[in-house]
Specification:
This protein is of the alpha/beta class. It has three domains: 302 residues, P-loop containing nucleotide triphosphate hydrolases (Rossmann fold), CATH 3.40.50.300; 120 residues, Domain 2, N(10)-formyltetrahydrofolate synthetase (2-Layer Sandwich); 83 residues, Formyltetrahydrofolate synthetase, domain 3, CATH 3.10.410. Strands 1, 2, 3, 4, 5, 6, 13, 14, 15, 16, 17 and 18 form a twelve-stranded mixed sheet that branches. Strands 19-20-21 form a three-stranded mixed sheet. A two-stranded parallel ribbon has the order 7-10. Strand 19, helix 19 and strand 20 form a beta-alpha-beta unit. Helix 7 runs antiparallel to helix 10.
Length: 555
C-alpha cells in the first residue's frame, strides 16, 4: 500500500483517548475535530521536565530519497510504549513547500506514521498560516511607516532587511521590486520573500517560553536603519502586540497520534539548513512534562539539525538529551560512496565501504557533545545481509551500539531492538551536553568551532560584505548571540556536490542575517537561499482529489 492508503486504513482514536494516556484533563483540550487538539502552556511543569529522558533522533548526510528520521522517531516511540515505557513523540510540522515540491508528504512512512496524515501535511491547525500573517503584517507596517507623513520614523528604505514570507517553494519571489504603480503604491524598493519555515517568526515561535516572551521577542526584531543610521526594531512600530494576537493559538502545541495510538505532539517547522531545525521549546517541554521518554528529531544531518538543537535550542531551554539516535540507510551510504541514485538499491559492497566515512564523521560530530550514541540502520527491502553486516561490524569496531529498524514495514514491533538499546544508552548517560562554543566567544570563533568540530573543516572565510555586516552587528551589541549556520544539507561543506566525508575544506560566508527577536545570528554559507525552488517534476503534479474528496498522491 502507499503511505496514504496505510494512513487511511487505520481509524484514529478520539483525541481524548490519546490525551488520557498522558493524564491530560479533558477540559484542557482545545479540539480541532475528533483527532487533533491544542494543548495549553500551563500544562508544562519544569520539575517534571528535569526528570524526563529526552532522546534526539538525527541522521547522516541526507540524500534525495530521505533517510527516515521521522519514521524512526515514530517507530521508536511505538516500540517504547510496547515495552510499557510512557513515551511521546515531539516532532515538527511539515511545510507545504517540500510537500508539494520534493517530498510529497512528511508525516513518517509506512507503518510508522502520525495521523491524520492528510491534515498534518496540509493546513493542520493553521500554525503556519498564523506565522505567515504575523510576518507579513510586520511588512505592511514597515511599508506604511515609510509612506506615512504623520508618524514616520525616518526609515531608509534601502536598509530594510525584513522580508515577506509564504509557505511554498517559489523561486521567482526570492528577489523582487515592490511598490510599483506610482505614488499611491508606496516607495519602490528591492526586497524578497522567504519560505515560512525560514521566517524569524517561525524561529521566535519555536524558542519562546510563553506568550509574553513571544510578544517581547517579536518587538525585538531588527528591521532597518533610519536615514541617520539608527536601528529600527518592530517595537518602534508598536507591532508586537498585534503580531502576538495573530500567534495566540499558534504558540500552543498540537496533540495527535501515531498509527498505533501513541501520543505525538507536533509543533513548529523551521528548516535546519536555513533555520534552527527543531520543534518548539514549549512542545518539547510539554512532551517532557507528560511522559517518561520524549523522542524528538532535528532536521537534516547531525551537522545541521543536531548542532543547532544542542547549541541553540537546548542552551535556550536549559535541557539536554540523554542519548542521540543516528539514523543511517545503506542506500545513502552507497550514494556517498559513489553509487548513483538510480543504482543505490543494487548491492555494492565497495561503494558501501567507501561511504562509511560519512557515518564516521557524524559519529565524531555527535561525540563532541558528550552524550552517548546509538546508530539505527533504517532497513529497506533492497538491503542485503552482506551490506547489513558491513555496517554492523563497522559500528562495533567504533564501539557504537547499532540496531536494525523496521519501522516502515512493521511499526513499533520493528523498532524493539532499537528501543532496548536506546533505553540502555540513556540509562548510562549522566552528562549534560557540551556546547561547541561559549556565548562570550567572538562570532568568528563560534563559526570556526562549528566548522572544525562538527563539519571536520579547516577555516571560515568571510566575503567583504560579510565582514562589513559582522562589524555592524558587533557594534550593535549582538556579538554574544549563538550562531545559526545556513548551509547546504547535502554535504559537510558549503558545496552540495562534495559527498562522503570531505577533508581540507573551508566554509565561505557570503553574508550575514541577524535574528534579534529569535536571538541568533545567521552566517549564510555558499549559495544557500531562504526561498527554495521547485524541482523539475514537483510532487504537486501527482497530488489530486477525486469527486468524493479522497486525496491521492501524498506519500
Amino acid at each position: 500500500m502507499t503511505e496514504i492508503q496505510i494512513a487511511h486504513s487505520v481509524t484514529p482514536k478520539h483525541i481524548r483517548e490519546i490525551a488520557a494516556k498522558l493524564a491530560i484533563p479533558e477540559d484542557k483540550l482545545e479540539y480541532y475535530g475528533n483527532d487533533k487538539a491544542k494543548l495549553p502552556l500551563d500544562l508544562i511543569d519544569e520539575e517534571k521536565v528535569k526528570a524526563n529522558t529526552l532522546i534526539l533522533v538525527t541522521a547522516i548526510t541526507p540524500t534525495q530519497p530521505g533517510e527516515g528520521k521521522t519514521t524512526t522517531s515514530i517507530g521508536l516511540v511505538d516500540a517504547l510504549n510496547i515495552l510499557n515505557k510512557k513515551a511521546v513523540a515531539v516532532i515538527r510540522e511539515p511545510s507545504l513547500g517540500p510537500v508539494f515540491g520534493i517530498k510529497g508528504g512528511a508525516a513518517g512512512g509506512g507503518w510508522s506514521q502520525v495521523i491524520p496524515m492528510v491534515d498534518i501535511n496540509l493546513h493542520f491547525t493553521g500554525d503556519f498560516h498564523a506565522i505567515e500573517k504575523a510576518n507579513n503584517l510586520l511588512s505592511a507596517l514597515i511599508e506604511n511607516n515609510i509612506q506615512s507623513k504623520s508618524r514616520r520614523l525616518g526609515i531608509d528604505p534601502r536598509t530594510v532587511v525584513w522580508k515577506r514570507c509564504m509557505d511554498m517553494n517559489d523561486r521567482a519571489l526570492r528577489n523582487i521590486v515592490s511598490a510599483l504603480g506610482g505614488k499611491a503604491g508606496g516607495v519602490p524598493r528591492e526586497t524578497g520573500f522567504n519560505i515560512t519555515a525560514a521566517s524569524e517568526i517561525m524561529a521566535i515561535l519555536c524558542l519562546a517560553s510563553d506568550l509574553e516572551d513571544l510578544k517581547k521577542r517579536c518587538g525585538n526584531i531588527y528591521l532597518a536603519d533610519t536615514w541617520e543610521g539608527k536601528p529600527v526594531f518592530a517595537k518602534d512600530l508598536n507591532a508586537e502586540g498585534a503580531m502576538a494576537v495573530l500567534l495566540k493559538d499558534a504558540i500552543k502545541p498540537n496533540l495527535v497520534q501515531t498509527l498505533e495510538g501513541s501520543p505525538a505532539i507536533i509543533h513548529g517547522g523551521p528548516f535546519a539548513n536555513i533555520a534552527q531545525g527543531t520543534n518548539s521549546i514549549v512542545a518539547t517541554k510539554m512532551g517532557m512534562t507528560l511522559s517518561d521518554y520524549t523522542i524528538t528529531e532535528a532536521g537534516f544531518g547531525s551537522d545541521l539539525g543536531a548542532e543547532k538543537f544542542m547549541n541553540i535550542k537546548c542552551r535556550a531551554a536549559g535541557i539536554s538529551p540523554k542519548t542521540a539516535v543516528l539514523v543511517a540507510t545503506i542506500r545513502a551510504l552507497k550514494y556517498h560512496g559513489g553509487k548513483s541514485l538510480r543504482e543505490i538499491t543494487q548491492e555494492d559492497l565497495e561503494a558501501l565501504k567507501n561511504g562509511l566515512p560519512n557515518l564516521e564523521r557524524h559519529i565524531a560530530s555527535l561525540k563532541s557533545f558528550g552524550i552517548p550514541i546509538v546508530v539505527s540502520i533504517n532497513a529497506f527491502k533492497s538491503d542485503t545481509e552482506a551490506e547489513i553486516k558491513i555496517v554492523q561490524d563497522h559500528c562495533e569496531k567504533l564501539g557504537i551500539p547499532v540496531a536494525l529498524s523496521y519501522g516502515w514495514a512493521k511499526g513499533g514491533k520493528g523498532c524493539l531492538d532499537l528501543a532496548e538499546k536506546v533505553i540502555k544508552s540513556a540509562n548510562s548517560s549522566t552528562n549534560q551536553f557540551h556546547p561547541t562554543y561559549n556565548l562570550d566567544d567572538t562570532i568568528p570563533t563560534k563559526m570556526k568551532n562549528i566548522t572544525q568540530t562538527v563539519y571536520g573543516g579547516d577555516h571560515v572565510i568571510l566575503s567583504d560584505l560579510a565582514k562589513l555586516q559582522l562589524r555592524k552587528y558587533e557594534a550593535m551589541g549582538f556579538a554574544n548571540l549563538p550562531v545559526c549556520m545556513a548551509k547546504t544539507e547535502k554535504s559537510f561543506t558549503d558545496d552540495q556536490k562534495r559527498l562522503g566525508r570531505p577533508v581540507k575544506f573551508d566554509i565561505h560566508i557570503r553574508e550575514f542575517e541577524i535574528a534579534t527577536g529569535a536571538g541568533f545570528i545567521i552566517p549564510i554559507a555558499g549559495n544557500m537561499l531562504g526561498m527554495p525552488g521547485l524541482p523539475a517534476i514537483p510532487a504537486a503534479e501527482k497530488i489530486t482529489i477525486d469527486k468524493d474528496g479522497t486525496i491521492e498522491g501524498l506519500f
